[in-house]
Amino acid sequence: MCRTSKDCPDAIAQRGSSRIGWVHNAGEYLVWSKGSWGMGKNRVVPRYQRDCATSADRHPLACGKCRYRKLKGCMIEETSFLRTMTEIVPVTPSTLLQPEPIDIIERLLQDKRSPNTRHAYQKDLRDFFNFLAQSPPTPELVAQFLSLPRFDAIAKVFKYKAWLMDKGLSEATVNRRLSAIKSMVRLAQNLGKCSWSLDHIKGEKVRQYRDTSGIARQDFKRVLENCDRSTLKGKRDYALLRLLWDNALRRGEIAKCNIQDFNAERRTLKIRGKGRGTEVEVIHLANSTVQALLAWLQARRELKVKAPLFVSLDRAHKGHRLTGSAIYGIVQQACLEAGISKKMSPHRIRHSSITAALDMTDGNVRKAQKLSRHRNLNTLMIYDDNRNQDQLELSELLANLT
Fold first, then answer.
1. What CA–CA distance (Å, rounded) separates 328 from 159?
2. How many CB atoms lie within 10 A of CB 134?
3. How far is CA 259 from CA 103, 264, 322, in A?
4. Alpha-carbon separation of residue 158 from 131, 153, 154, 155, 175 (angstroms)
């Protein structure tokens, strides 16, 4: 609203018996009515706070286009005024419906549920753009890459892959970095920001679970016996190690557990498995595992059932949820203190547990699958082949023939 029409050529006068005001013809209209501004047909913006709602630079008490002061004290009958003005002044679409600039990498990371996956993708894409342009990825740099001709873009990705292999990186690492780039391009395609794809670029062949031997049963028994269960830390570590062995759990599955997920009476634990998002799976616990968890929780004296099942006990992070890295460190330290020379990890204990289960069931992969929760039965066949050591048996037979 401007003070007078003669001072502002872009203003339109609207006069009536009970409504007097001036509306700026800038594509949208504002109404000063009973101390509030009305924007759009039925929208009311917050109370006027000495700030012009149409001004791009928020100039105080002035119209954004003509800079003339607002008309004070104008009492307008809002509904009839708006009805009249919709016939005079065209209304532009809301800014909420205007297209926003797209940050492809940010969108890609937001689509990933796992924090570890987000961190890995962010790191891999940073490495790719540092190779291309000696610069971390920015929306402008990503847009430049996506706008390249198909041949040039694919050639750069192949060059990056060759550089990774020349550095001596493992096949799994090379494939992961290529997967991050492919995911970025695929998302850009879906958003209409790219006209080509990288799906035909093949990764390197990787054999999974080459070493599934883990730790011998007698050695792990020594690790458990070495835990000082007279201390709070010893009770926690013992319960943690029992879960890893007795149920072949992954460290991420244990880290996500809360106290309320444990049911001592039913001897169950709710876990959130790998690749299952928020889907909850109920597993049954052995009596020794239940007793270990009860001893830990009774000594801890935590009353909040939504608290983490396992927490840190050091001064810096006391009471905080144990992360996957912290569980890795606990396992490694416990094995070293028990005199285990082989480098151990939570996943190696999982390997050991699954292998031991196959030994006790005479290679019954269906039963072992209930423990390991592998979706692909072929993965368990790798464990079984490593357990049987068929190659060594045949080599010994051939050696005896000569």
1. 36
2. 7
3. 39, 10, 13
4. 12, 9, 6, 5, 12
Instruction: Give dist(CA 12, CA 14) in Å, integer.
Output: 6
Within 13 A of 368's CA, how many CA atoms are on the CB side? 25
Look at the chain and count its residues: 402
Residue 141 burial (CB count, 10 A): 15
Contact 81, 31 (CB under 8 A): yes
- Using an 8 Å Cβ cutoff, are 230 and 326 in contact? no
Structural tokens at position 86: 């919709």
Q: Which residue spans within 49-161 are E strands per DSSP?
A: none
Cβ–Cβ under 8 Å, residues 139 and 104: yes
Structure tokens at 197: 């794809």
246 closest CA partner among 386, 349, 340 = 349
3-state secondary structure of 14: strand
* Amino acid at the residue 361: T
Low-confidence residues of the chain: pLDDT under 70: 1-101, 207-211, 275-278, 384-394, 402
CA angle 282, 284, 288 (to 5 degrees): 145
State the CB neighbour count (10 A cutoff) for residue 121. 23
pTM: 0.60
Which token pair is 292?
């270990």
In one letter, which amino acid is 62? Answer: A
Contact partners, residue 119, CB within 8 Å, separation at least 6: none
How far is the C-alpha of 244 from the C-alpha of 204, rounded, in Å?
32
Tokens of 178: 């290529």
Question: Amino acid letter at 160?
Answer: Y
Residue pLDDT, tens place only, 95-126: 545 556 678 999 999 988 788 889 999 999 99
Q: Strand, helix or coil at 256? A: coil
Which residue's structure tokens are 């000082």?
228
User: Taking the mean position of all CA atoms in its chain, how far away is CA 166?
Assistant: 31
Amino acid at 91: V
CA distances from 184 to 140, 142, 149, 170, 347 (A): 14, 9, 16, 22, 30
CB 84 within 8 A of CB 29: no
pLDDT (tens digit per residue) in 53-94: 443 333 333 344 433 333 333 333 333 444 444 444 444 555
